[in-house]
Amino acid sequence: MSSGTYLDKKNKLSKEIAELEKKRADYSKQIAEKNSKTVSVQKSMKGASASSIISKQSQINSLNEEISKLQTKIADVEKRIAQKRVDENKAFQQYQTELDRENKKMQQEQKKITDSYQKRINELSTTLNRSIQAQVQPVSTLYSQIQEDATEYDVFISHAHEDKESFVNPFVDALKKRDVKVWYDNDEIKWGDSLRAKIDSGLKHSHFGIVVISRSFIKKGWTNHELDGLFNLEMTQGKTILPIWHDITKTEVQNFSPSLAGKMAISTALMTPAEIADELVKLLNK
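The structure corresponding to this sequence follows.
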């Protein structure tokens, strides 16, 4: 069982103990009232007739019997309280043991994410070195004919085409209304342009890279190229990747990229496109 289950059990027992202690106090109060009544009846016996004395003695006997029953109930309640205190202490010890185990497991998982991230950095470093070596080779005729766009952008949007209507288009509109310079394929890539060259140029001239991670995103080839480019820039130039989770679970993100799962992300399930745009503006102002 989880630590939360043991804590719930401990809290439930604490509540039951409190209720039993309240019941014990109520029985003690009743005993005090009956003792007081017994004393009162005994006092009234002085100077009473024989028949009246017999009646009052019967009343006293009845009160004593009720007091005895109440004392038995108190003894039973105290026994139950003692047992529940034992169970409460046991549940608390189990809670602490399970909590320690969960913390150790969490630390191990965090280490796995860190190690995976480091492995990813090493892989990107190797890719970057190969890319640098490749730059000394003649470039293709197609690339040499393209004039690189020197425009500077606040943010590059990496996303899957399937997410445009549900999130990306409203998000880009919200950014533009806030005067954020956005590299967005709908605006930047024209008929006849080289996709790869345009994307590489957009990555190079953007301060931040927003990655809209969804189930469609992790299946795309072009999005993986963009993601590799963002990781390269983050490692070499300090560029920052800003993840947005869209209609996807943490487990799915971890399976796709543990390094992305380890980054603080914003979820479209919790914030609107406008609210996320406001968060980006705050970051840009800093």
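The first strand starts at residue 153 and ends at 158.
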